[in-house]
């Protein structure tokens, strides 16, 4: 596709439910990032992949959060036993290569509401 | 201490005004800097890169001050369409992380 695609766009989960959020990066992009954006806040870093390798997961808020990119393209962010504080927009971004001075392109995000 | 600090505003300015945003970063080894624009309920999109020599794109000027560890964005002759949230972004020296500020909300008033 032409851009980063995320699905679903909206997800309502009951507290305690597991959810999986999908990101299709721009074809050929090596780097993939996940961010969490709470209302009125800037995006907060969650995790980073270079191809299939998860090089940095320091931003994942708890062990309920898990991300994978098994074939170095599509990525899935999984949240187990969702809590109300997990409600946020989850943004995925990709960039052409690892390194500095490279623009990151964002998907439209998945808005997760935990009720 | 957050990696990137940014005044959240809001800034409400009349059309035609000049407005400036600043952003400070904590890691002196940071290598790359950007300004992103985010419209309501939309994803962030790159506005411009920030270079040590400063760079200008039409009504927008971005500057980097490494000594004081801040970046700035100047918007001249504000338009209604400039209303958005402006996010400063700092890339870590390892290139692994794009750190975002909280964003500065700008509303341009007719």
Structure summary, number of beta strands of chain A: 11
Low-pLDDT parts of chain A are: none
Q: Of all protein chain pairs, which has the greatest interface, and how many residues does each chain bring to it?
A: A-B, 25 and 23 residues
Strand segment tally of chain B: 11
Amount of beta strand of chain B:
over 45%
Distance between the termini of chain A: 33 Å
Beta fraction of chain A: over 45%
Query: Overall 3D geometry of chain B?
Result: globular
- Cα radius of gyration of chain B in angstroms: 13 Å
What is the general shape of chain A?
globular
Fold and architecture overview:
The complex is a heterodimer of chains A (115) and B (110). In chain A, 0% of the residues lie in helices and 48% in strands. Chain A has no helices and 11 strands. In chain A, strands 2, 4, 5, 6, 9, 10 and 11 form a 7-stranded mixed β-sheet that branches. Chain A has a 4-stranded antiparallel β-sheet with strand order 1-3-8-7, with no helix packed on it. In chain A, a hairpin with a 2-residue loop joins β5 and β6. The relative contact order of chain B is 0.34. Chain B is globular, with a radius of gyration of 13 Å. The N and C termini of chain B lie far apart (38 Å). Chain B is mostly beta strands. At the A-B interface, β5 of A face β5 and β10 of B.
């Amino acid at each position: 596709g032409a851009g980063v695609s995320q699905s679903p766009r909206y997800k309502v989960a009951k507290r305690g439910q597991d959810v999986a959020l999908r990101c299709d990066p721009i074809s050929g992009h090596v780097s993939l990032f996940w961010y969490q954006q709470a209302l009125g806040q800037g995006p907060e870093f969650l995790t980073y992949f270079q191809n299939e390798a998860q090089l940095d997961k320091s931003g994942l808020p708890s062990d309920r959060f898990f991300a994978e990119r098994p074939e170095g393209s599509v990525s899935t962010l999984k949240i187990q036993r969702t809590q109300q504080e997990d409600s946020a927009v989850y943004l995925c971004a990709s960039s052409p290569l690892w390194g500095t001075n490279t623009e990151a392109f964002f998907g439209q995000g998945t808005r997760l509401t935990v009720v | 201490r957050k990696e990137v600090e940014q005044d959240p505003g809001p800034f409400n300015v009349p059309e035609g005004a000049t407005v400036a945003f600043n952003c400070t970063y904590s890691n002196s080894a940071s290598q790359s800097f950007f300004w992103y624009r985010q419209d309501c309920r939309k994803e962030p999109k790159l506005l411009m890169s920030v270079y040590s020599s400063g760079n200008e794109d039409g009504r927008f000027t971005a500057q980097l001050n490494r000594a004081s560890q801040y970046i700035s964005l100047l918007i001249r002759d504000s338009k209604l369409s400039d209303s958005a949230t402006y996010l400063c972004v700092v890339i870590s020296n390892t290139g692994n992380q794009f750190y975002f500020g909280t964003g500065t909300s700008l509303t341009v008033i007719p």
